[in-house]
Amino acid sequence: MSHETLTLSTTEPVARKDYTCEVCNGAIRRGVRHVVCTGIYEGDFHSSRLHSNCHQDCLDYASHMDYGESYTFEAVREWVQDGSR
Ligand SMILES: [Zn+2]
Q1: Which of 6, 68, 69, 81 sits a CA distance of 20 to 30 A from 43?
Q2: Distance between CA atoms of residues 73 and 24, nearest Å
Q3: Using an 8 Å Cβ cutoff, are 55 and 49 in contact?
Q4: What values do phi and psi take at 11, rounded to 5?
Q5: How far is the CA of 77 from the centre of ligand 1 (A)?
Q6: How many domains does the chain have?
């Protein structure tokens, strides 16, 4: 329960400066369209910036899990790197 994540909105803005992707820790360059997930994470209001393809990895990962199970970006990253997708 303490790790419950509630996503409130997902938007796809164009980066106005360089950001870091929270899934792969890679750079999101200025001018690149990416995904911003805004929600409640562990009780705090939080925004996460992700590459569009990394966001897709999150969705793919979530679809392989039991509904209601929480997940972290680290788990998604490990899952992608394992090649188990
Ligand atoms: Zn990424």
Answers
A1: 81
A2: 8
A3: no
A4: -125, 160
A5: 9
A6: 1
CA–centroid distance, 34 to ligand 1, in Å, is 9
20 C-alpha to ligand 1 centroid (Å): 8
Place of tokens 């199970």: 69
Is 75 within 8 Å of 61 (Cβ atoms)?
yes
Res. 81: pLDDT tops 60: yes
CATH number of the structural domain spanning residue 54: 3.30.1740
Could you report the per-residue pLDDT of 15-57, keeping only the tens digit for each? 999 999 999 999 999 999 999 999 877 788 888 999 999 999 9
Q: Which tokens hold the place of 78? A: 């490990």
